[in-house]
Amino acid sequence: MLRLVAPGPSTRYYRIGVPEDARSVFSPSSPCAFEPMTAPALTHPLTPREAECLRLLARGESSKQIAHTLGLSSRSVDAYLGRARKKLGARNSTHAAVIASKAGLLIEP
């Protein structure tokens, strides 16, 4: 339950909650509950270099930082991320990192 306070001379509290009937929609037994993500069916598995670039991207590093860490050019890093993005069917590199992370493909060495 969340309480919001309206500033002013007469302070009022507002209670915001989820109605009981709406909670059943999000229960684990509900047919529309979210399923845990499984590893995508990859026709070509990620190379170790692609997985490493995605792992560093998932940690918040930029392409330039990844390039410096791995001793590569930023164009090489962008190429690795592009190939990984294509293999995972992601819209962008960040989306690819999220997909790979949720699928357990970015395990620390």
Automatic annotation (TrEMBL):
Entry keywords, A to Z: DNA-binding, Transcription, Transcription regulation
Protein name in UniProt: HTH luxR-type domain-containing protein
A Gene Ontology BP annotation from the UniProt entry: regulation of DNA-templated transcription
Pfam families per the UniProt record, alphabetical: GerE
PROSITE patterns: HTH_LUXR_1, HTH_LUXR_2
Gene3D superfamilies from the UniProt entry: Winged helix-like DNA-binding domain superfamily/Winged helix DNA-binding domain
Residue span(s) of domain HTH luxR-type: 39-104
Keyword tRNA processing: no
Protein's UniProt keywords contain DNA-binding: yes
Entry GO MF terms: DNA binding
